[in-house]
Design a protein that fits this description.
Elements lengths: L7 E4 L1 H15 L3 H20 L8 E3 L11 E9 L9 E9 L4 E9 L9 H12 L4 E2 L3 H7 L4
Parallel strand pairs: 1-5
Antiparallel strand pairs: 1-6, 2-3, 3-4, 4-5
Length: about 150
């Protein structure tokens, strides 16, 4: 892959739902933290569009929930610091699906270590991954508007 090729970013319905929950639970009364969180997500998505396979410790391949893997897809997890949070909540996680054939990065689930020590339960993750691979995603172009609509007040 040369430097001019880019992966398209897509958002699963679950990503949008878990992102709004995270904002509501962690940034509702912290406008400055909310703004930094929005900036972080924009930076992460831009970075993934250029390099969807970041090196550890930032990113790594995840094992598939049993019976969910498909040819042409890779399951990844990013680990990063959540702005203005402390303890386990400071440890942000993003699970995403890499569609090699379509050159798409599909954001699946965003959460903190405080919510799940490892990752969400395999039965939930398996169901979501299968839905996504069968076509349930929206385009990233709506992301900035949705983040702004998720007012942190």
């Amino acid at each position: 892959m040369n430097g001019s090729e880019q992966f398209h970013i897509k958002l699963s319905n679950n990503f949008e739902k878990t992102q709004q929950k995270l904002i509501r639970d962690r940034y509702r009364k912290n406008q400055a933290g909310f703004v930094k969180f929005v900036e972080l997500i924009e930076k992460v998505t831009k970075s993934l569009s250029v390099n969807p396979r970041p090196n550890p410790p930032l990113g790594h391949l995840e094992p598939w929930p049993q019976g969910s893997s498909r040819d042409g897809f890779e399951l990844w997890k990013l680990e990063f610091k959540m702005p203005q949070l402390r303890g386990a909540a400071e440890q942000g996680r993003l699970i995403y699906l890499l569609d090699i054939i379509k050159q798409e990065v599909v954001l699946v689930w965003i959460y903190t270590h405080a919510e799940y020590e490892k990752r969400p339960p395999d039965k939930n993750l398996k169901r979501l991954l299968i839905e996504i691979m069968e076509g349930e995603v929206s385009d990233e172009s709506n992301m900035s508007n949705e983040l702004e609509d998720g007012d942190a007040d």
